[in-house]
Amino acid sequence: MAGNTYAGKNLRIRIAGKTVFHATDCSFTTSRTMDAIASKDTNGEQVSPGNYTWGVATSYLVANKPDASATQIGTKEILDTYQAGSEATIEFTTEIAGDVIISGQAFIESINLSAPTNGVATGDASFKGNGDFVVEVFDGSDLPQLPDAPFMNGPSNVYFFAGIPFQYQIYATNSPDSYAVTGLPNGLSLNSTTGLISGTSTTGVMNMVVSATNAGGTGQQSVVNVALDGLPPTAPSALVASDIKATSFFLTYTGSKFNNGFVGANIEKYEVYKNGVFFKDAGGSSTGQLIQLQTSGVTNLWKLRAKDVTGIYSEFSSELEVTQL
User: Fold this and answer.
1) pLDDT value at position 249?
2) Using an 8 Å Cβ cutoff, are 194 and 221 in contact?
3) In angstroms, rounded to a whole number, what is the distance separating the alpha carbons of residues 213 and 87?
4) Between the chain's N and C termini, which has fewer beta carbons within 10 Å?
5) Is there a single domain that holds both residue 213 and residue 243?
């Protein structure tokens, strides 16, 4: 950006698009020959610019580059390039869009490795430019583009039978490299490569946080696993009619639950009955319904039953008598 100085820490040497791993210092130098011109009509020496030479140098810590790093070059790769006598694209850059970048083709001219008794091993590499160097503004277009972080898109409520083998697959977009989970109960384990959770648990309710990671970041999701007992849920209760009008009223009730005490999330739906005949469905997480299209002055009997996610119905609630105004 205009007016900003370049921090030395940000300036790096890139070799074939890869920064030097654990670099500690780098430099760019160029010099030009000057041809002297003298004549009988001049007292001082005149000069004419000739060709120029250029090069870069970098110092670094001798270390093994991480296998997973595709954006850096380590000691071994530098030595391999030198032994092969290969020309490489060299860049002197901050890798910050808008900053100046100096680039060109060069050969590795020399390498020096030093290993003091006290301290870490260090290396120095000098590069001799081959042809012109180019000075331009860096636009960042050739930098590796990180993927978006994973977006979790698996189910957040899962049901299982205690004591029976169970599997849950962690799902996420953008090609995760690894998976993790917290809150995993005894009896279950995670394959961190595939994202599959499997095993047998006797826990009634499991509250887990699953996550998926790639080079762009980590996504996570809360997952509630509820053990089903194979028994009918409790019947809805405490039916109350309010806001009674000529053709409508509002029906509230206490939701059904399983023997494990978990309420709501494992109920698929409620069925509302009028005078013993099915009237309408209500959502499994609901505790109230607007009842419409009734007849003024008429009295009806209302009741409900619940259906759980395994298809088992509860008993009916007690009936509630409602007279429209």
Assistant:
1) 94
2) no
3) 37
4) N
5) no
Residues 193 and 290 in one domain: no
Sign of CA dihedral 68, 69, 75, 76: positive
Q: Which pLDDT band holds residue 91 (cuts at 50, 70, 90)?
A: confident
Selection from 155, 173, 156 nearest residue 219 by Cα: 173
- One domain, residues 68 and 94: yes
- Based on the domain organization, do 13 and 86 belong to the same domain? yes
Three-class SS state of 82: helix
Q: Which residue spans within 148-216 are E strands per DSSP?
A: 157-161, 166-169, 178-182, 188-191, 196-199, 205-214
CA distance 46 to 52: 18
The whole-angstrom separation of Cα 276 and Cα 288 is: 19
* 8 A C-beta contact, residue 301 and residue 292: no
More confident residue, 16 or 3: 16
Task: Please state, as a whole number, how many other Cβ atoms lie within 10 Å of the Cβ of residue 311.
Answer: 7
The answer to whether the beta carbons of residues 309 and 265 sit under 8 Å apart is no
Helix (H) or strand (E) holding 80: helix 75-84
Nearest CA-CA partner of 107 in 90, 123, 124? 90
pLDDT at 144: 62
Measured at the CA of 18, the angle between CA 15 and CA 19, to 5 degrees, comes to: 85
Where in the sequence is the domain holding 254, given as residue range(s)? 237-323
Residues 112 and 23 in one domain: yes
> What total of structural domains would you count in the chain?
3
Measured CA angle at 159 (ends 155, 161), to 5 deg: 150
Higher pLDDT, 285 or 159: 285
User: Tokens representing 314?
Assistant: 């509860």
pTM over 0.90: no
Residues 213/170, Cβ–Cβ less than 8 Å: no
Residues 163, 282 share a domain: no
C-alpha to C-alpha distance for 253 and 261, rounded to whole angstroms = 17
Q: What are phi and psi of 102, to 5 degrees?
A: -110, 130
